[in-house]
Specification:
By secondary structure, the chain is mainly α. The chain has one domain. The chain contains 10 helices and 2 strands. The chain has a two-stranded antiparallel sheet with strand order 1-2. Strand 1 (145-146) and strand 2 (149-150) form a beta hairpin. Helix 4 (81-99) runs antiparallel to helix 10. The longest helix is centred in the last third of the chain and has 27 residues, at 201-227.
Length: 232
């Protein structure tokens, strides 16, 4: 009975999400689109905080690097969406590979290190004006277009974001229910015990950090195509 109720609630929620642009105005459609994007960013943070206990304060860096990379490639170099968007995700993920080395620390040390990383990226975005545009940022980012498929309005983009976020949410559920996800929860509960059982806790935490950074990067790409500009 409980399972049937959950399925019914999910179907109702999906139906409401699908009908929203037709019953609400552009303001609400745009607002909910942003909620989906930042919900995906929150999901990336939850993978660390909720399943490993690591409190990262630098995830906005991956979000920003992905957004800037995509915007700069599209606006200044006329790179198509099919290449610019993956490049943005890759740039944010590569940064996560570097920042992820912070998992060698724990507690307040990890928090302060990730906070410092975040400020470094913010400072570069703000001060390196010849590359990032400074306070003015990068403007006139076009709507995404792949092959003959082109998004031409915020309503169409709403459905694209909805589909991407749903796929990510399903993938997230599969990941946290997998042996890898269960190992992360075990590490959160007792890292010492998991090590005694033969688990490489440091490697698991590093992998979780990188996957989390990739999700945050995807959110950054979705954001810049909605907002159509990016600045500090």
């Amino acid at each position: 009975m409980a399972a049937a109720r959950r399925v019914a609630l999910v179907l109702v929620a999906l139906g409401a999400a699908a009908l929203l642009p037709h019953v609400a105005g552009p303001f609400w459609t745009g607002l909910v689109t942003q909620m989906y994007v930042f919900g995906l960013l929150a999901l990336s943070v939850d993978l660390l905080l909720g399943h490993t206990g690591l409190f990262s304060l630098c995830h906005a860096s991956f979000f920003a690097v992905a957004a800037y990379t995509t915007a700069i490639l599209q606006v200044r170099h006329d790179v198509p969406t099919a290449l610019a968007a993956p490049a943005g995700i890759l740039a944010g993920t590569l940064l996560a590979l570097v920042f992820g080395l912070a998992v060698r620390t724990r507690g307040v040390y990890f928090i302060l290190i990730t906070l410092a990383f975040g400020y470094v990226v913010w400072g570069m975005a703000h001060r390196w004006s010849s590359f990032t545009g400074g306070d003015n940022g990068v403007t006139n980012v076009p709507f995404p277009a792949v092959g003959g498929l082109r998004v031409e309005s915020h309503t169409e983009y709403y459905y694209l974001v909805l589909a991407v976020v749903l796929l990510c949410a399903i993938g997230y559920r599969v990941l946290v229910a997998s042996p890898f996800g269960l190992a992360l929860r075990g590490i959160k509960a007792s890292e010492t015990r998991m090590r005694s059982l033969g688990y490489a806790s440091g490697l698991h935490l590093y992998a979780a950090f990188v996957v989390s950074g990739a999700l945050a990067s995807l959110a950054g790409v979705l954001y810049v195509y909605y907002n159509r500009f990016v600045n500090p």
